[in-house]
Amino acid sequence: MINAYGKTVFSDILVALLRYSKFLVRYSTFVFLGLFFAVSAQALDPNEILVVANGQETDGVELARFYMQARQIPSENLLVIQTAANEGIPRHFYDDEIAAPVRKFLQDKSNISCLLLFYGMPLRIDGHLSPAESQDAEQNHATRRQRDPVASVDSELSLVKIEDAPVDDWVANPYFVKFQRQKTTYKKGQVLMVSRLDGPDAATVRRVITDSLAVEEKGLTGTAYFDARWPEPEKKKKLQGYALYDNAIHQAAKNTKPVLPTILDEKDSLFAAGDAPDAALYCGWYSLAKYVDAFEWQQGAVAYHIASAECTTLKKKDSQVWCKRLLEDGVAATIGPVGEPYVQAFPFPQVFFGLLLDGDFTLVEAYSLSLPFISWKMVLIGDPLYQPFRARGVLP
């Protein structure tokens, strides 16, 4: 799954995040974010969302209108494009049939800060390695990107306002908490947050919408499950690769304990069938494209699994990738990549779940602030306005 490309940068990022996360255990998430990241706690407004649906998928257009009415998104914020209702799309068709009409529509919509893609929109921009190229081990990350141009439609659309944006490497996300005080290639105003409401069928998407709305009124309850693979190390300064991210899961569990009942498994094995009743939150790793049905999901649950292929499809009937199976089993929001992302491209769980638990941040804001790279492979599936802990208010 994970290559060492970018290891030095990744190590610096996570060491800093782990240092900051100690304060989360002692203070509220709200105070933590205000003091250290200067993150605005003003939630995304429905007027700031552009809803994009595919005219070739009638169910998707109907679901888009249903969602917009439920969330009071202005009807003029709907863009219906025409493209094949396939999960994969060649890049030239993405450029002409998706990016171009979205970019044109945004010219008169300066208030838009978030795109929401609906059921029927392509998931992946496809590309393939030749046999000779796939055997070339001596290549840096940018070279691999040129030869393996698979990306998520969602992640590429985050840069849609920038015409002819280069696609020769991933791009630092200016919203990511660690990059907020650093110079990045693009500024926040140039980058859009992106989410999608999608799944194996239209009924699942409608259920995700109605569950999110219902849970916001009462607040998400249940147990948080975090599945690390090793005990928390005593010394963290020299952690790299898998160990760094495993330790991030430990920190997420620590941050969640003051708010929800929390179970942390630090053994190499995964949660097994029956181990996780009343599951509200989950983050763990590593079972590649093989969902482990260990959970009884609470309505409105938020969960993601760290592995390389977990959002390569949402429609393939017999697929066991985690995003598809989590949605089928009842979660309301999940995250995954459409191809090999490398571990440093995943959202950091202690930041993502910490922001959700705060109560003031929406799902797409928590995702954007915890996501290091864009123009890459990650996908957020869920209602971008979802605030599962809004009813609780800011953490005590």
Topology:
Blueprint (H helix, E strand, L loop, with lengths): L6 H20 L2 H8 L12 E6 L3 H14 L6 E4 L6 E3 H16 L7 E5 L5 E3 L4 H4 L6 H7 L3 E2 H5 L13 E2 L20 E5 L4 H17 L4 E5 L13 H16 L5 E4 L10 E9 L10 E11 L16 H8 L4 E4 L11 H10 L4 H8 L2 E2 L3 E4 L15
Parallel strand pairs: 1-2, 1-4, 3-5, 4-8, 9-10, 9-11, 11-12
Antiparallel strand pairs: 5-6, 7-14, 13-15
Helix pairs in contact: 1-9, 3-8, 9-11, 11-12
Strand order of the largest sheet: 2-1-4-8
Distance between termini?
A: 38 Å
Tell me what portion of residues adopts beta-strand conformation. Answer: 15-25%
Oligomer: single chain
Q: Uncertain runs with pLDDT below 50, 5 residues or more?
A: 1-38, 128-138
Structural class computed from helices and strand pairing: alpha/beta
Query: What is the strand tally?
Result: 15
Helix content bin: 25-40%
Describe this structure in words.
34% of the residues lie in helices and 17% in strands. Residues 1-38 and 128-138 have low confidence and may be disordered. With 396 residues, it is of the alpha/beta class. The protein has helices at residues 7-26, 29-36, 58-71, 91-106, 131-134, 141-147, 153-157, 202-218, 241-256, 322-329, 349-358, 363-370, and strands at 49-54, 78-81, 88-90, 114-118, 124-126, 151-152, 171-172, 193-197, 223-227, 262-265, 276-284, 295-305, 334-337, 373-374, 378-381. The strands form five sheets. It has a four-stranded parallel β-sheet with strand order 2-1-4-8, with helices on both faces. The chain has a four-stranded parallel β-sheet with strand order 10-9-11-12. It has a three-stranded mixed β-sheet with strand order 3-5-6.
